[in-house]
Amino acid sequence: MHVVSNMVICLEVRYSIEYVVYLLSNLEEMIRETIEDVGFETTLITEETNEKTSQVCRIRIKGMTCTSCSTTVESALQLIPGVQKAQVALATEEAEIQYDPRILTYSQLLKAIEDTGFEAILISTGEDRSKILLKVDGVFTEDSMRIIESSLRALSGIEDIDIDPELKKLSISYKSDIIGPRNFIQVIESTGSGEFKAMIFPEGDGKQSHRQEEIEHYRQSFLWSLVFTIPVFLTSMVFMYIPGLKDGLDIKVVNMLSIGEILRWVLSTPVQFIIGRHFYSGSYKALRHGSANMDVLIALGTNAAYFYSVYSVLRAATSPSFKSTDFFETSSMLISFILLGKYLEVLAKGKTSEAIAKLMNLAPETATLLQFDDEGNVVKEEEIDSRLIQKNDVIRILPGAKVACDGFVIWGQSHVNESMITGESRPVAKRKGDTVIGGTVNENGVLHIRATKVGSESALSQIVQLVESAQMAKAPVQKFADRISKYFVPLVIILSFSTWLAWYLSGKYNSYPKSWIPSSIDSFQLALQFGISVMVIACPCALGLATPTAVMVGTGVGASRGVLIKGGQALESAQKVNCIVFDKTGTLTMGKPVVVNTKLFRSMVLREFYELVAAAEVNSEHPLAKAIVEYAKKFREDEENPVWPEAEDFESITGHGVKAVIHNKKVIVGNKRLMLEQGISVPVDADEVLAEAEELAQTGILVSIDSELIGVVAISDPVKPGAREVVSLLKSMNVESKLVTGDNWGTANAIAKEVGINDVIAEAKPEDKAEKVKELQQSLGKVVAMVGDGINDSPALVAADVGMAIGAGTDIAIEAADIVLMKSNLEDVITAIDLSRKTFGRIRLNYFWAFGYNLLGIPIAAGALFPSTRFRLPPWVAGAAMAASSVSVVCSSLLLKNYKRPKQLDNLEIGGITIES
Prior knowledge:
Blueprint: H1 2-25, H2 27-37, E1 55-62, H3 67-78, E2 83-89, E3 94-99, H4 106-115, E4 119-124, E5 130-137, H5 142-153, E6 158-164, E7 169-174, H6 181-190, E8 197-200, H7 207-237, H8 243-249, E9 252-254, E10 257-258, H9 259-275, H10 277-288, H11 294-318, H12 328-352, H13 354-360, E11 366-372, E12 378-385, E13 394-397, E14 406-411, E15 414-417, H14 419-422, E16 428-430, E17 435-436, E18 441-442, E19 447-453, H15 459-472, H16 478-508, H17 523-537, H18 540-560, E20 563-565, H19 568-574, E21 579-582, H20 584-588, E22 594-600, H21 606-617, H22 623-632, E23 648-653, E24 657-662, E25 665-670, H23 672-677, H24 684-695, E26 698-705, E27 708-716, H25 723-732, E28 736-740, H26 745-755, E29 759-761, H27 766-778, E30 784-788, H28 794-799, E31 802-806, H29 811-816, E32 819-821, H30 827-861, H31 866-869, H32 875-894, H33 903-906, E33 909-910, E34 913-914
Helix pairs in contact: 7-9, 7-12, 9-11, 9-12, 10-11, 11-12, 11-17, 12-32, 13-18, 15-18, 16-17, 16-18, 17-30, 17-32, 18-30, 18-32, 19-30, 21-22, 30-32
């Protein structure tokens, strides 16, 4: 019977398991059917967690002229399946695209941009790999290219190779942990019996070279246009008033066609169709995609003047009585002035990104590579291009030289000036084991460093990438200009046509006196000039450049001062901030606790006491534990790296302290709660010491040995210099300050009182900090900035309108923040807010000018002043005004480069020491 019953149980269990498996395998279908039964459609979304589902690609776009162009490209990219986010910046002429690499490739993105009519050049794919450009000299045939490529692909760590035969350029993507650029050069030069020579590609594919090409292109175009335009201008407006020359130009060739008209026609044609071909191609690209840009306005205006002139001279050539009036000078002078404006504009735009160029120039050009024998002796020194440094290379840094890459010291002692990266003005002592940052300056000793981060992984490259991304990001206020740009050009074309029609009909039906018409033209030609002037004076570029150029300069100025602002959104939010929530440890305080007092309740040698305490705490990673160990080293100054007694049965009790057995003695180090839980009584004397420490914003650590309380160690994390003054200055800027910390109430209140903050929340968990931020936003309607440095601050940094991370903080906090304060100085909180306010003040001024220019210029061009003053704007003057408006907006933004932080910071005194700007 037992056997049968057991079999029955086994069968029941088996069928139960099978039923559960059946349910699980059909769970998705059952859930889908249940949802559909209540009337909703469902789609199963499967997510592969082992694959990277998002990647960021950066592409340079050539040929964009105004906001309409950037909007067209952006819209085209956003329609592509797999594109999660696309940003196209007119000022930087770049696109930043976040996409799913499982659905599409960057090649498809490049093709999509080129389909909109613009040239696309890949900057980076966002993949986790390094990239280098090499130039190969020597015999470069199709066979040799194939040999070189196959030799390189055979190397471990190669990701991708792209060859440009015309430029003899190799683009190699690789895994920097496995291989490096020197390996590539060695393989290339050893291929083909030494007939090839490889080096870093001279100009790379950098933004600077592209900008220089663009500047040179517009300069050459403008100069060539002058060659033809100046004679046209002289024959139409100067020589006609010089008797001898006038007679020569008026000589008739065929019927009423004169020599002067032929000269002007011949000279203006290259300007219209060869030098000005850029405007035709730009117009075609825009119109093909159902939009209209600045090129459309210029092409329409110049063609109207040119082809009317052609009609006029052809009619004169076929008529014995018709006297023509041509506008060839209008079309050629229009194009010349617009090219001058574009030249000045790209020149000025180049200056808006100087901050990035300065950052990139911090890296040294060369480095001294050391090679060692098996015994560790230097056997060879070689000077190499710093871009050829590979991971684990050993580099020698001489006094006064720049550190070539990120790494750590393996030999030598010195002081390194890191102010260009961290903003810390005092040189930092470096010895064996200490980390160094590429681009900093070695001051007084020789260092040997081992490279750990090279190329795009270095701190300097990360900062550059951060600033570049910031300059790509659009401010919300820019959306207003983007919306207007969709309708701006069509509206201007309608206004232009309406202006021509109104003046033409008014002239035809004698609605104004004939004396108003200049003697050299008729009513039709007057109306045509007004129409062309309206078309070419309107400037969508000024609107499009108002925000991005100011954001570029503002973020660049911030980066040069150690304040990294992550784009227009952060800038716009920061200028509205009226409440700041500060973390305590590492933000308002130094973040480096130190032992300030020791109280023993039993006769004991202090050295022996700290010997036992340090032996227990050396196994802990807590900042307070490290402070105790560091203090204990003072009693063993004769040893460089003291070895503490071995701790047995070590146990760390999170949030309370540690336990261990040392020299057969049971040592417990921690807070009062830990002592009580371990059955150790805390005498009244110890309670008084703890209370006194708390009032002084210190943390009291209790120490018991063999179940008896022996002493109290008071640890202080001093307030940062200037914290009180910064809080006071923020108050004068109408910004409230609040303190939120995970520390105890006593310490929190003491710190808050010391710095002048009244609103305090203590013993807060990470989620509590975020909740406090949300409460301030929702209940009180505050625009909140959170300033913190730790992992536990990340939720609050994300929840705040503006998250500000202290530069010395964790990578997670810096990633979560909108603004990074590289110097770790609290005064930079004020700089960030003030800079954002000044930047947005400049954006408002730019918009005021751009709108004011168009609202004032278009009516004047349409002839609003003509009836009362006979004042009219010739089309070429209107074109010059249009070009000047774009340049003026860019120059207005460039004035931000003269930004000076608030004077109160320059006069800030901390402990009798004046902080200098």
